[in-house]
Each structure stands twice: as C-alpha cells, then as structure tokens.
Design brief:
Four copies of one chain form a homotetramer.
Chain A lengths: L1 E4 L7 E4 L5 E2 L8 H7 L11 E8 L2 E9 L5 E8 L7 E2 L20 H8 L3 E9 L2 E9 L7 E8 L6 E5 L5 E6 L8 E7 L13 E7 L8 E2 L5 E2 L10 E4 L4 E3 L2 E9 L8 E8 L7 E4 L25 E8 L4 E8 L3 E8 H10 L1 E2 L11
C-alpha cells in the first residue's frame, strides 16, 4: 500500500507501510530563537520549543507549542500558519500559562485551586476538537511538590482564548487525549496514569486506559480498570514506557491514536512514535500497530553547536492533523528542543494497525511475521 | 606460518599467526538498508543486520542473518551470494521467525508450545551441517517473561525451508552449536548455559559445555557437568564472558571452534573472537587459543552518521566457512549493526590453538611466552 | 526596557529584559597561559583562571582571580586593567594565598590559626567595597580535613596589600558577600551555609541567609534563622543549588545581588547566574528574579584542544562592576577554566527583579506569566 | 633557574622550574605497530607499548617496555637505541615474561613457585642499576586470583638476559624501585604496598615506604612502618593515589625520585608525574615537590583514529635517565597506550623539591606560596 502525500509544495511523495512517515526537509519548523523574536517580554523568552498540540481553525493551522521559559517553568505558546509548515505567526503571548487572576474559568470552579495546580508550569497541550469546540488537555505541575502533576482541561471555541475547567482527574497523570465526539452516547478519552509514586520518581508510565464521562468538561471520568494498552516484558519498541500522543483522529478506518513508547537499551532510552486504531463505536476494541511510525534520529534535532539539546534520542508528538484526502501531518518535538513535522496517510497507519498489530494487553504480535 | 588467502578477487593476501584474520575491504557486506529494499512488507523492515549463520548450499553461499524488526523482535533472514561476499540476493521473507500456525514441525511436537517459546523473537542462528542436512540452532525469546531464552532447533535439507524440532534443552541458554557429524557414535554440541538468573540479568555466561545425544533432533542432550572452557580471574582477552560462535568445522587438525570472549575494562567491554581446536574423536580434548582471532575496531561498523549503532566495541560471529583449500571466511556482526566478513585459514587457526593455547579450565597459558 | 551598553569600544549595544547580559566578543579575557607568563616562580604556575572578584581602585579595574596552582591548591591573583577588559597587567605574585608568617593580620588574632584554616588554599574572592576600604571575603580550605572550608575576611585600602581578619564564622560555609555600607546601623552580609555535612559531601547548598554585625571586621555575625532565598521542589533554574555571587551593588533600585543557581537535569547540572534586588533599608525585603541573567554555553570556555576543561556547563561569578551610568560588567568564570566578561545594566536587572520575581522562600512566581 | 637541554638534535631548549619537562616533538617514540613488526611470533603480537624501564648499557639506551599481548597478559620487551630517542631496535623476543622452565633463577629458589606468581603477566619494569649490575623490579600477577600481585626481582649484567630472584616481598604490592647503591651500608628501596584488599579492588595505593636489606637479591626487606610519603585529604595533585615511578637517581643534590600521583576530579582521574629528593645518606629525609613535573594532555597519546586508547588522562613513568651534564630523559607511557619521552634537568627537579616541597607525611606545603 502506498499513498501519495505532499507538504503542499507540489512535490508528491509516497508513504507506505514500509516508510509510514516522511520527515519534512525543512525541519525544524519552529525554534526557540523564533519564539524569542516575538515574545518580547522577558519572562517569555524561552529555551525550547517542542511537543506542540495542533489544530486547524478558521482556515489556519494553529500550533500550541510547549516552551521552557528561562525561569524553568513551561508554558504553552501559539503559532499560526497558512500551510501548517512555514511562516508561523507566533502569538505575542502564551496561550496557556500557570493560571492567574483574571483567567477565564468555568462556573463553580476555584481559580485559586487551579492556580495552585498549575504554578509549576503547563506542558504538552493536546487540542482535542469536540462538539464544535476545542478541548485542550495539558499537564500542570504544582509548585513545591516534586512531580505532582495533573492533566487539566481548557475549552476554546476559536483558539484565541480558552476557559479552564480544571483537573480532568485528581490523580497524578499525563498525556490525556479526548475523542472528538461522543462514543456510545458518552465522551471518551485516553489516559496515562502515573501509577503509584515510588518515592519521587514520577510513576511507572506503563499503561494507557480509556475513560468515559457524560460531560467532558465537568466529568466525572470513569476510568477503566483494565488497561487498553500496556508495556510488556518481551522485546518490543514500546517495552518500557507507553502513553498517548495525539488526540484520536476519526477516520473511515476507526479512531487513529498516535502514541509514544520507549525501549530502554544499554545505549539510551529511545522514544518512538507508535500508532493504534480503535473501533469507532467501541474504542475498547483496539488494533495496536507493533510497528513504530517514527524512530528518533539526528535529523530530528538540527540545532547550532552552541545550543542545548535537552533529551537526546527522543521523538514525541502531541498532534496529528488530517487533510480531507487522508494525508496526516505529524507534528513532533525532537530531543525536547525543537518542533518538526512529518507526513503520513491514514490508510497507511490504519493498515499498520490492522495488519501488523500486537495484542495491546500482552504485547504479543497478532500477525504472522 | 603463512597461508595465502583471497576474497575471490585475484588478490592473494597472507594470513598468519600474526594476523590470523584479514577484514574484507568492502565491509560491511550487508546492511539494514539493503534488507529493507527487499523485504517490502512493513513488518519486515529492519533496523539492524548482524550475527548471521552461513553455509554453502547448492553452489551458493547462504546467510541466515539476524535483524531487529522495527517492532523490536528479531527474525532470521536469508541472503544468497555466488561468491559469499557480494551481490547478496536477499530472500523476500525471513527464513525463521517466531513460529506460527502452518510452520513445519517435527511429529509429536506442539506448535503452540514452540510458538510460545519463540514469541519474543529468534536470534543468532547457526547453520550446523550434519548428516547431509542442516541443523539450525537459534535463540528464542519468550514473550512476557524477561530474558527467558531457549536455544531451538530447526532442520532444513536445502535451506529454503526448515522443520522445527523445538527446544534443544528446557533451560535458559544461548549460543548452541553442533558438530557436523557423530562423535563416538553420538551427536555432539557445544552449549553456553545462562546459569542461574540473578533476578533478571540474563545469567553469567562464563562456561562452554559439551553435550551428547543419540538423536540431535530429539535429544535428550546429556550436558557435561565439567565445563569444556571457562572464563577465569586472571588477565585474559576472555576474562569476563565466553560462549560459542560458529559451529565446529572439521579440519585435518581437528574441530575448529570459533567462540567469543569479553574482557571488561574501565573503558568498555570489548567482544573479541577466539578460536579453539577439539580432538576429532574426543572433543573433550580441546586446544584453546589464548590469542583472539579478531579485535573490534571502528572499521567493523561503517555506518552513516544518522544511523544507530546498537552496541559499541563488538565483533560477534555465528559462522565460519571453509573452502577446500582450507581458507576460512569468518562472517561477523559489527556493533550488532552490520554484517562484515574476514578471511583466515584453518592451518593458521589450528596452529594458534596448538602452539598458543591456554588451559580451557584454568586460563593458564600452555606455552612459553 | 532597553539600555545602551558598551565595552568601552564605541560600539553601543542594547541589553534588555530579553537579553539582560551580552558576552564580550573577546572572551576569554584572562587565561592560565597569560598568568604563567607573569608568575615566573614555579610554585605560581597555574592551570586555571576563574571566579575573580573585581573592583575599581585608583582609576584601574582590579581583578582578584582564582587559579589552581600546579600543586592543586588555589590562590588568588591580581590583575589590573585600564578599561576592565583588555591589557590586564598581572601582579607578579598572588594577592592572597594560604597565610604565612609575615602576613598582616589584625591585632589579637593568631596567625597560626588562620594559616591552619587556609593551608588547603584560598578561593573565589569577593571584593566588597565598604567604609572606603575593601573587605575581601574568600573561601579557605583546611589541610588534611576534607571539605573543611571557612569564609575568611581580609581588608585592603588600596588592593595592593591586605590585612587578614580571620574567619567570618566558625562554620563550614562558602560564598559570603558584604553590603558596601551599613544597613540600619549595622553591617550586613549574605551567607551560604554548607549545612550539616552528610559524611564528606560538602553540604547541601540550598539557602542564602542574611547576617548582621556591629563590626564587619570582628563580628560576631548574627545570621538569620530564616533563609533569605532558597531552592525548592518546583521547576526552576535554581532548583537544586543556590548561593551568592557578586557583592551587593547599591543602585537607585536597591541592592543588586548577583547569585548562582543549579538545576540538575538528566544531561548535566548547568550553573546559571541569577539576580535579586534587596530593599536598601531592609534587605530582608528581597525581589528575586526568576529569570537567570546568563546560561552557560560553549562560548564561555574557549580553550585550545589540548587544554583541560575543569567543570563543563558552568558560569560562575564573583564580581559585578557598576559604571556611573548604571552599566554593569559581570565578570564570570567559564567551566572553572577561564575568565570572561559580560555587560548588563542595573535598570535591566532591577526590572527583572521587580517585574519577574519569584518568592525567595517558596519559589513561586510573583508575576503573571 | 634555567637549564639548557636538548634531545641530541642540536636544538637546545630550556627547562626551568616553570616548565620542568619538555615533551619530545617526535612522540610517541615507540608503538605497538613497531613492536609487531619485529615480534613475528603470534603470541608476541601486542596491543600496547607503555611504562618502560630504561637504562644505558654498553653505549646504548635500553628500554624494557610493557606490552599487552593479544591474550591479555603483559610482557616486558626490550628495545635499544643509540640516542635514546629514535631508531629503536626491538629485541626479537620479550626480555621478561611469565617464568617458564629454563629461565635462569637464583640458587635455592623454586621456579615453579615463581612461575605461579608470574603466570598472569609481568608489568612495569624498573631497571635499577646497582653494584655494577641491573636489578630489574617488575610486577607479576598470579593466574586465577584476581589482583594478586607481587613485585619480583631479576638481575642482569648486560640487559641481554636476567636471572630471577623471586618476589621482593610476599605481599600485594606494586612499583618497587631500588637505590643504585648501598645507603648506610644496606641496600634500600621504595615500596608502594597495596594495603589490605577490600574484596577485590586492588588496594588503596596511598603510601610510599622505604625498606632496607643486607642483600637486595635475597632480602629480607625491612619495610618502614612509617610512610615516607603519602596522600592526604587536602587539595593536592597527588591527593588520591601515589607510588614510585623511576628508580632513584643519584645526583649531587641527593636521590631524585620520580613518582606518580592521582587527583580524582568530577571529570576524571588524571595521573601526573611528581618528583622528590632524598638525602643521599639518610633517604628518610625527603623533599617532596608539591609541583608535578608533567600533567597529561592529548599530546601524550597520538594514535590513529582506529586505535584503542586504554586509559585516558594518564602519564606514567618507570624510567628517568641522567646524562653527565645532569640532563634527564623522562620516559613515560601515554594513556597506557604508547611510549613517549620528555626532557628535564636534575638541577631543576632538585630545585623544585628544595624550594617547593610539601610535607610528605601531611601534604602541607613547606614553602610560602
């Protein structure tokens, strides 16, 4: 299976099950230096740009990128582009940052409580289009309590402002993504609990679970006890860590779920991007591709010699966009330092899941090698 | 002692006790990119090519190479070459992969049990020519149980297909090679038990043992209690790990046994290739060369800057071919990443063993330095 | 806010809250080779030049730099320059070194006791201008007792010689800086206790405290129980270590306090320079900028390939000079190996503190990101 | 103080207390490749050449270098040069290797016992000229017992053959050097006991002791309880390890003792060369220079990219030659990989000791910095 894809540059390329994602030759597409040229307030000068959520809104591609401010706290910035690749117009101020007085919050919530939850920074936003609005899920660190992290919700109609709805759950967690519409009459999401904290390590990161709520804004979310996907002891590209990346994309094949996995080696802990497909009506039915979509390489962190590289050997995504023809743009951070993009196609990824799956609960391959 | 050797290119070179193996200038001879050009199925795209078993069959050189699939599981592919060096024709599908329904197995065996043993991947095949057929021994990892590894047997007449005979022993082990004919009326092999598992480390790897069976296909194998060769506390190139590499080769000098050894240093754990000679009639009588055949170097892993190198400082072999004139081709993986070849001669290696041996049980040199 | 600054070279540049410090293009400004060309006595040949205190005296800029002698002990050398940037005239002998007979000490002190305290070397001098003289605070290591370190005081009118006043406190400590004049009728200083020694690790380094004395030369210093500033568990550029750098500078905005902080990462422990502003009358009132003034980079340690780099990823300062127009010269060591300089402006740094502060006791940001 | 020195090339250079040793521009002077070109026996091919003892004998400079054989055991080879710098004529076989039948031993000794002590290799020979003969002290490792090491003695009149006299002491030890003549009527040597073995770490290496014997060939050696020199807890270039290097050289200034020291840092464990001077009549009277003679640099291990470097950041010497004019040639291994030479002068080294000493027992400097 091959699909013609392009970066909007009249240079069609082919993605296939063999090469499911093609890097954009112009990577990186956004860097700290570019943000700093716009965020002309001192507290907004940044040292990284990575792990951006992305959505199309009003004819533009909107990117909500994560940046480490110089103070060490992460915020979520916004950039808009007509083609989703070049000429990013960076919004003059962060789109989301630790909550402060004046921030819009949903009725009945305590801004003080939210602010306390977010005081250590907001990270890794996903833009989940849902009910003709955008539900933005992001990680928030408390101040003063190491590794206390909540996934928070903010809702925006136009991605120019957002209203906070507070923590999705009162539990240490990261990487929550929502399905773009109700499933079986209820809202649905994917969750990566941080499990029990052994001291202060930040959890185990070994399961993705599904949850449902009657109202995605208020919850409560009922999280499945049974993991939807997990890591396992066998050889696998996702053997040691796993978690959601981009919000599930509705395709004719089912929900496309771009996730990340880590396989520890004697030479590092490479992060790869994986993909799973969920049944449209019963997302518990999941076809998890055993084959990663992208492996990290030096091409994923093109920086000057004088610049810092935060975490070597990492590709990490919070966003995948679908064009009407099924072409997918995978936005991903390289080494927690810069933003890149790769192109793929839904037919290819769905096919990976259907034909080359692994049992999401045991890790066993579901096809004959 | 010098012997003229060549790579079939009309450029005779000399190997000697001083330089017992010469690297092929065209190394590497097989890479992941070459395999990927042939294995056009997504689940068969690979990230490494290394540790190949090799045999001559039907006028061709047949290589059974190990590759990490993208999913993280290893399979065993096949490539054929007229000259054993260049123009490798890679078979369109793996030769051995975790067993699945339809795979040929010997009567009386449970395919399900074998499949369970192999579900985590098959690795490091040796092609043992025996009784006018090929006994292929390979390591198989279970799924879900870290480091549960069995050495499995498959038999093939023509190296186009194979029939499985299941685990050689029900014990964690790697690196089993078989003698090409009966010894003293029984079949014989070399074994590297993984010893007791301290937690989950994968064993100690400090001994090579010999075993016998009336039927190499069905066993049972009786493994000697006494190690045939071992590591020792003294300074040695094999001081910290040891195990068989290529199947023993019958020569006029005795059985040639190419093995590997590791000497831990403050700067790494270099793997070298060593050689031992076993009495044709009583292989317990062993002359183990204290001198390695090959040390690792940067020339053993020529890759592009953007490519991964799995394990630095490693040469590892699963195959050594003998030409009628006694010339030996040593096929070896470099850094668990690419396949290389070096040339040697049986007279030279045998001489190394006879003249420059070390006591296989104590490590003491058997010659006067 | 922008301020025009220059390096005295008629090339005005702008510093701002976005880029509060600009590196001198001619860095490094002093190296071991330069010192060795002057210190023509064997025991004075050095292997590093770093962490210099600096003051203006008699129309010259005087630098008291730290150097590791070849014997491993640190001494404090002096260099003078007309412009504070180039053409450093290195004094032929160290200005401060472990005390010996003949050194000037204040009445009533025991030179033997002081000599014992300093026998392991003197390090990281600060030149604190006070009462029309210079109070030099420096760290002194005892010989024979690992990590026994005292901060010592020496006083000099002209920076050509100094009189010792012994240990500021009888407690393991580093990085003591004094305010240039009395505050509330008493002398004041900033202290970084080394806390309790867990075995021999050298302390925790997590707090800056303020202390007062009626006589800065004799003490006794009363150190606040309550930390003035501290590290915290939240994300921050100063999350893991903190301590004073340059002596507080009096500005119209308050006391400018250049300090250092460390944030441990999975890829190293970068030292950054931070800044705080203290109320002129009540320095307990502190505005601590959450934004560092300078991050380490490769440009901070330009050495030849054959030269040693002592500690990668470090910028560390003991001095900041103020010109009448408020321009600041920040003298800082790069990687504990060479001396560099950067330029800033008091209005910019004060503004950083006022507008972009963090609670010095909790680490919480005091502004809306 | 300056002294004119040269490498016999009519290019006089100056050494001084500032630069007590000058590297030979043609370093390295001997490499593994050169030895391999001569040692045409397989068991004698080597992977390193370092830590050579050197003496003048019969108008030639004789070097007894250490090499790792490929088998991992070290032997001691010989090379001769007319000028001590170039055109080394490597003897066709090792001069010393683990003892075997036929080796000359002194009457009354058991060759079997000596052979057992040396079976793991012989290392780091010193050529001690004494009583018109050469007493060669070298380290010998037992086989099978990790880190069991004895210093052995062999005596040679002409450095073409030697007679073994067995272990200097029955105690784990390295780096024994002998004084070239009797002192106070008895023979004298410097010893570096390995102390108690904590498990298998090889000892502490923190003291140099002096010993006396009526017969240097038979002992028994009476070793002082009191260390002659030691490491200490204070900052020092020899703070963490210490041991003799070259045999003491008689000069008009006293016995010149070239030793090595290690100062552990957060960036490695650099080995430096130090020097001490001992009273001719009472060598317990020692002036230990606090200033090293040579620090390691990249210039000390010039190897091709494909070659191994055994231990980075090391200069180590076993030999220092004196010309009648007091010029000293310091032969030293670089990174345990190649042999280098530097030039110095006895007046300069003696002056270092006299003027810039440290108390050998406490580490305290004996001069005013």
């Amino acid at each position: 299976m091959k699909r013609s894809v392009d970066f909007g540059d009249d240079r069609p390329r082919a993605v296939s099950l063999l090469e499911p994602a093609l890097r954009y030759p112009g990577n990186p597409i956004l860097t700290a230096a570019q943000v700093n040229a716009v965020w002309q307030q001192p507290h907004l000068q940044v040292v990284t740009v990575h792990n951006a959520g992305v959505a199309v809104c009003g004819g533009e591609t909107v990117m909500l990128f994560r940046s480490h401010l110089r103070c060490g706290i992460s915020v979520i910035g916004m950039a808009r582009s007509d083609n989703g690749l070049t000429d990013w117009r960076i919004a003059p101020r962060p789109f989301l940052k630790p909550a402060v007085s004046g921030d819009a919050i949903a009725p009945g919530l305590s801004l003080d409580e939210i602010a306390a939850m977010e005081a250590g920074g907001v990270e890794d936003a996903r833009i989940n289009p849902i009910d003709n609005t955008f539900a933005i899920t992001y990680s928030a660190y408390a101040a003063g309590v190491p590794n206390r992290v909540r996934v928070m919700l903010a809702v925006s109609d136009d991605l120019t402002s957002a209203t906070r709805f507070g923590p999705v759950m009162h539990r240490d967690m990261r990487n929550v993504v929502l399905f773009p519409q109700r499933v079986g009459g209820r809202y649905a999401g994917l969750f990566r609990p941080n499990d029990e904290l052994p001291g202060d390590t930040g959890g185990l990161f070994q399961q993705i679970r599904i949850g449902y709520a009657d109202d995605y804004r208020t919850g409560p979310w009922e999280i499945s006890e049974k993991p939807l996907m997990g890591t396992h002891g066998s050889p696998s590209a996702f053997a040691n860590k796993i978690g959601p990346c981009a919000p599930p994309l509705r395709t004719k094949h089912g929900w496309l779920n771009l996730f990340h996995g880590v396989r520890s080696t004697m030479d590092g802990n490479p992060y790869v991007l994986g993909v799973a497909l969920h049944d449209l009506d019963r997302p518990e039915n999941v076809w998890m591709s055993s084959i990663p979509v992208l492996f990290p390489s030096q091409a994923d962190c093109r920086v000057a010699e004088s610049e810092y590289v935060h975490v070597p050997n990492v590709v990490f995504s919070c966003a995948m966009l679908r064009r009407p023809d099924g072409v997918l743009l995978i936005y991903y951070g390289g080494n927690d330092t810069v933003m890149n993009v790769a192109v793929s196609h839904e037919d290819v990824l769905a096919e990976l899941c259907h034909r080359y799956g692994q049992d999401p609960n045991t890790g066993r391959l579901l096809y004959q090698i």
